[in-house]
Amino acid sequence: MKSAKPYIEEHKQRFLDELLELLKIPSISADSAYKQDVIKTARAIKEALQNAGCDTVEICETPGYPIVFGEKIIDPELPTVLVYGHYDVQPPDPLDLWHSPPFDPVIKKTDLHPEGAIFARGACDDKGQMYMHVKALEFMTRTEQLPCNVKFMIEGEEEVGSASLGWFVERNREKLANDVILISDTGMIANDVPSITTGLRGLSYVEVEVTGPNRDLHSGLYGGAVANPVNVLAKMIASLHDENNHITIPGFYDQVQEASEEERSKMAEAPFSIEKYKKALDIDDVYGEVGYSTNERNSIRPTLDVNGIWGGYTGEGAKTVIASKAYAKISMRLVPDQDWKKITNLFKDHFENIAPKGVRVTVKPHHGGQAYVTPIDSIGYRAAEKAYEKTFGKTPIPQRSGGSIPIVALFEKELNSKTILMGFGLDSDAIHSPNEHFGIWNYLKGIETIPQFYHYFTEMSQ
Q: Could you write out the DSSP letters of every residue in 192-242?
């Protein structure tokens, strides 16, 4: 396959302009106020796939937001690559921490992105990375170099748990039939250290509610005489970790698949500076489970974190009140072979059991998914490896990610397909945070590398 570089250079400005327009649409799936914007984004993706060369593109209705499906079948005897991505984005809050409006994308140079980075919600997760695949298809079709069949499945609910995706997959197995699934919703170690994600953590996400008195109370008249739900919730959450930052829920670690010393040794070979890590986050020390390195804590070990906590008066000034209720949102990242439903039940039982008298506790499960590990001896992985070697001039390092893409395990179960995770973002791209961004170099490098995967995967599959 000829290099995509000349084509990318010729169409670079258009590739950027198209992505910027897509990023202007606030496709926030978590907030129903943006429903029409999410649907508008699905229509934009449909048009982009048609323009890129798909012969068939449709917006498929689901119980939730629609899934955009497109395909180009050049020969049923050839392999088929299924590309998955999502067009919905995280809420941009807190807005006051953004240096520019989240849905008014701007390009700014940074130390890590001297060629410029696009700052906007969804720039890296996942509109920018998803759109690399659309432009890669355009290159292959316009230059008549598409070596195999391709299908696209782009959903609008990934940031809220992909509730409709399982429903869609179960009803469309034949439509989605493929030889390998390709996803760019992860990252790599550095621009000069390419890597391929080989594992993802699972997820269990819950919301807890602690209720005390039947109304908010005057803290002077009632303080010390009744249980304060906010105080109680804080103590209950604090008890979920011991002095070694080990999670205290009984049975939580029973099914944890321990990484071998060989795998831990390989992980340790990846370039990593603890001092740069701390400086980038403006912290004076790292924190986590005793006995594991930072890179192990955020990838091969399970975790439990509070994602939000509230209750009582939080407005300006003072209000002396004991709140009737307190709330928290808690996520648990899981590793093989932890089952997310079992972990959710273990959490629920434990949290309810440790509640003191005087309060009532409710645990509401939200969503979750299984952990996933992909073999590095598969045709798909080796094709990706050769693609990176071709465009980066280096062999990529296999690495496990701390993030979760719950649908990857679903794909293997329902479609019997392995997934290859070719991410081009960086840890510093601030996904899910204010000032999310995606390097222009990374965006274009993805467009250059993806066609090479098609080439090598087809060649190795013959």
A: TB-EEEEEE-EEEEEEEEEE-SSS-EEHHHHTTTS--HHHHHHHHHHTTB-
Task: Give the residue carrying structure tokens 């928290």.
Answer: 328
CA atoms within 13 A of residue 326's CA, in its CB half-sphere: 22
**Mapped to the 3 state alphabet, what secondary structure does 300-323 carry?**
CCCEEEEEEEEECCCCCCCCCEEC
Nearest-CA neighbor of 183 among 448, 408, 368, 362? 408
Q: DSSP readout, 343-403?
A: HHHHHHHHHHHTPPTT-EEEEEEEEEE--EE--TTSHHHHHHHHHHHHHHSSPPEEEE-SS
- pLDDT for the residue 177: 98
pLDDT for residue 165 = 96
DSSP notation for 404-432: --THHHHHHHHH---EEE---B-GGG-TT
Bridge partners for 182 per DSSP: 83, 420
* pLDDT level of residue 87 (50, 70, 90 thresholds): very high
With pLDDT > 70 as the criterion, what percentage of the chain qualifies? 100
Query: Rounded to an integer, what distance in angstroms lies between the CA atom of residue 70 and that of residue 388?
Result: 26
Nearest-angstrom CA–CA distance, 132 and 184: 9
Please calculate the CA angle 291-294-300 and round it to the nearest 5 degrees.
75
Whose tokens are 């060649």? That residue is 459
Report whether 286 contacts 278 (CB < 8 A): yes
Structure tokens belonging to residue 369: 């998914």
Question: In this model, does residue 161 exceed pLDDT 90?
Answer: no
pLDDT tens for each residue of 200-254: 999 999 999 999 999 999 999 999 999 999 999 999 999 999 999 999 999 999 9
Look at residue 367 and tell me whether its pLDDT is greater than 90: no
Residue 161, both tokens: 């748990």
Token couple for 202: 């699972």
**Mean per-residue pLDDT, 174-194:** 96
Three-state SS sequence of 2-44:
CCCHHHHHHHHHHHHHHHHHHHCCCCECCCHHHHHHHHHHHHH
289 and 297 in contact (C-beta within 8 Å)? yes
DSSP letters of 268-293?
A: HTS---HHHHHHHHT-SS----TTS-
Task: Express as a percent the part of the chain with pLDDT over 90.
Answer: 90
Amino acid (one-letter) located at 421: L
| Rg of the chain, C-alpha, whole Å | 23
Has residue 405 got a pLDDT over 90?
no
